[in-house]
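Ticket 4471: requesting a sanity check on a complex prediction with 2-acetamido-2-deoxy-beta-D-glucopyranose. Repro inputs:
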Amino acid sequence: MKLTYISVALAVAPALALLADAYHEWRAPVEGQVRGPCPMLNTLANHGFMPRDGKNINKKMAIDVLNKALNWDETAVNDLYDFAQPTNPAPNATSFDLNHLTTHNILEHDGSLSRMDSRFGPADVFDEATWNETMQYFTGSTIDLAKASRARTARVVASASTNPDFTLPQVGANFIYGESAAFQFVFGEWDLNATDPKNMVHTPTDLVEYFFRNERLPYELGWKRPVNRLSLALLTKLVMAMKDITIKQMGGEDA
Ligand code: HEM
Ligand SMILES: *[C@@H]1O[C@H](CO)[C@@H](O)[C@H](O)[C@H]1NC(C)=O
Ligand SMILES: *[C@@H]1O[C@H](CO)[C@@H](O)[C@H](O)[C@H]1NC(C)=O
Ligand SMILES: *[C@@H]1O[C@H](CO)[C@@H](O)[C@H](O)[C@H]1NC(C)=O
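Returned structure tokens:
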């Protein structure tokens, strides 16, 4: 009997592995599947971690998927989800679709790293010209918090000086640092005890470039699910460090 179980298990295991692969296989969205302004939520839908149609994402799903794919703690996902919920125009909705997130100035904001301002064009799709502006600051093989902060400021300044409709409401003004912290958390190497805060994380530029351009997890470049867990406390620490560095940079310091 035991032998039979073992041989069945051996026969079934590769099939299960194949199923798992198919489940997380990257596929570009097709007609009827919606995407939005968040490169990571789009990416997770492209891999089938989120529903491939980009629709009906509820809080439990967001918490489960971000844990499974990226090692995000519920504390980091809760608030983020709550900010996104009102983008669904349906009364009392308990889920959202990725394209709901595109509504200007709920969460979607001007001065994005990789998207046009809504005044100039679609604010939800990757825009190479905008991304090229950002990449001017992502020089060298890794991005530290100083480079990330300079890029973040530069895009806001560029939008503010060229877009007559430029706005950055309070939520957006905080959210921009959270977004930059988010990609560094996911793709970076951590040194939480670094004496200089700008060295808390170093993020391989090629992983970041690949992710933004392809909306795909850079497995083929050797990336794996982060070993650190992202709690709200850690996210806040990183956001505060970026804000602090930004203030110093604006004051002309070589931070
Ligand atoms: C429930 C979870 C999430 C929600 C509701 C959400 C929502 C959004 C929204 C609405 C934007 C557009 C802001 C803009 O106008 O640029 C955005 C941008 C962004 N998000 Fe997410 N997001 C989530 C999770 C994540 C995660 C896990 C990451 C990890 C890398 C991430 C990384 C980013 C980045 C880097 C941007 C900036 C894109 C740019 O500036 O071009 N997000 N997110
Ligand atoms: C939404 O919730 C409010 C408050 O609970 C309730 O009065 C209202 O009837 C609900 N609307 C719909 C469309 O379910
Ligand atoms: C972005 O930069 C790349 C590489 O420098 C260049 O080939 C491409 O034409 C630029 N794209 C736009 C839209 O400016
Ligand atoms: C960072 O410092 C703390 C407290 O000093 C220590 O417990 C921890 O092991 C250190 N972590 C690393 C990665 O060095």
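Notes from triage: The chain has one domain: 55-250. Leaving this open until the requester confirms.
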